[in-house]
Amino acid sequence: MRYAFLCYDNETVVGAWTKEQDAAVMEKHFATQRPLEADGRLKASLRLMPTTAATTVRPGEESLVVDGPFAETKEQLLGFWLADCETYDDALEFARKLANVKSHGAIEIRPVHYEHEIGQTG
Amino acid sequence: MTTTTLDWIDKALSGARPQAMAALLRYFRDLDTAEEAFQEACLRAIKAWPDKGPPRDPVAWLIFVGRNFGVDQIRKTARQTELPDDDRISDLDDVETPMAERLDDQHYRDDVLRLLFICCHPDLPSTQQIALALRIVSGLTVKEIARAFLVSEAAMEQRITRAKRKVGAGSVEFGAPDAVERLARLRTVSAMIYLVFNEGYSASGGEAHIRASLCEEAIRLARLLLRLFPAEPEVMGLNALMFFQHSRRRARLDADGQIVLLDDQDRTLWDRELIAEGFALLDKAFRHRRAGSYQIQAAIAGEHARAKTPEDTDWSTIDGLYAVLEQVQPSPVVSLNRAVAISKLRGPEEALAYVEPLADKLSGYFHFYGVRGGLLKQLGRVEEAREAFDRAIALASTPAEAAHIRMELDRLDADGSAGKDARSAAVG
Which chain A residues have a beta carbon less than 8 Å from that of B277? Predict the structure, then answer.
């Protein structure tokens, strides 16, 4: 099964980290994902810019464009991984390792329902 | 308790400080009471958080605990002295409202703006505004601020105390500002944040890391402001401008702390992530079609950031942007900067003609003589160039600035004996 691992945290707290602290957290994340990467099961790993760089577009006659994230939340989506896991337990294990890099925030596991294979249509 | 635990608590506390202090100031309407309440809340956080785990919203937790402590203190003193003064404890009637609902960003934003605005008291010289903001809003210690300003701790302590007294005596409106007043406050506060950044950016020397932390603090405050006012194009511009400038921090000074000119910087040292975020914010800002000086300055800095090599720099676009900036924010300094673009586009002669009329207004400005000297040097007017560089050295405010001009003078001497050298020496 393919899973998305969504990383949520309070971006005010994360933003207060020093460069060194930030780099240390990133290094731990890289170390955690390395085994999955080595056997080709890691499909994506990315970090998003802060929500201040976000724009939200809603439908409408003239679609409504709003600065900022779609909702104000205590924790924000900061990035995500996409990886293939043999079992649900494997996914839980990976998420646990990712979560334990810090003592706050959360990792949400979302099984992937459908993934369009780029280049297969059109 | 591990050091990592303490470390993240420390970060959470400093991250929460501006918002928590701002809300506490609204409750108590007194800086000292608010600070005391915040300190107490921090002490309790350090005790409670390691065992119970971190609260999901550290800011709300700190405000709640700090406010309860502050109210208790006021009640105690009131019992000893006089009847409780309801005016000193505002908003007590909404204690029952769920905390999370009251404390979303919309509620914080006017509080944080007010806290920053108080530091911008018009009677305070800008250095005191900066010092006060760093102490009250950012929570830097007096010692750290003193080192950043290269003054003694006692002198800084005195400066901050005096500033606080002045601010306390002034009357600041505690009601919610209307849209016009809000925009005016945003402008004032943005300017102060940019001053903090420049205080860190313009100087260098032994305390370089302290200076860099001022830049980072300014960026942190600007990010906070943008989170609270997500649709203000000038706040986006301010952020982008500082991102572009700060992206060059690793390339701006060499190993000896000497200034490295833009043309000579190792561009692989520039922080590409910060540059990308700057462009993302500029894209968003321009959608609003409300040009302002921070957006234009950011666009200029962005043109430099975009260029892979100095030769790739789009001087024509930069010149055009300076022309717009001269309209939006007329200033001899802006025109001086434009002269550098003009020299690149149309040669030193035209640039010098553009610079000369600024002499009266910029007679005390280091960069004026640096730019003028560079242009004269390119034109082979060695003696006049030497005069200009001598004036620049006399006006230099940091050793690095002076050293840089001295290097120009040395080159001038070398060139003087070896013939003319058309090498560009504009200070950019």
Answer: 49-50, 53
Write down the CATH superfamily of domain A2-111: Dimeric alpha+beta barrel (3.30.70.1060)
> Which residues in chain B touch residue A52, judged by CB atoms under 8 angstroms apart?
223, 226-227, 230, 236, 239, 281
Which ipTM was obtained for this model? 0.89
Please, is B16 exposed, middle or buried when counting C-beta atoms within 10 Å of its C-beta (0-12, 13-18, 19+)? buried
Domain-embedded: residue B367: no
Q: Which residues of B106-126 are buried (b: 16+ CB within 10 A; e: fewer)?
A: eebbbbbbbbbbbbbbeebee
Euclidean distance between CA atoms B375 and B356, whole angstroms:
11
Same domain, B62 and B119: no
Distance (Å, whole) CA B293 – CA B190? 11
The pLDDT value recorded for residue B401 is 82
pLDDT tens track for A19-69: 888 999 999 999 999 999 999 999 999 999 999 999 999 998 777 899 999
Range of the domain at B44: 1-94
pLDDT tens-place string over residues B318-329: 999 999 999 999
Show which residues on chain B lie within 8 Å of chain A, measured between beta carbons. Answer: 4-5, 7-8, 11-12, 14-16, 53-54, 56-59, 100, 104-106, 220, 223-224, 226-227, 230-231, 236, 239, 276-277, 280-281, 284, 287
Residues in chain A: 122
Whole-prediction pTM: 0.87
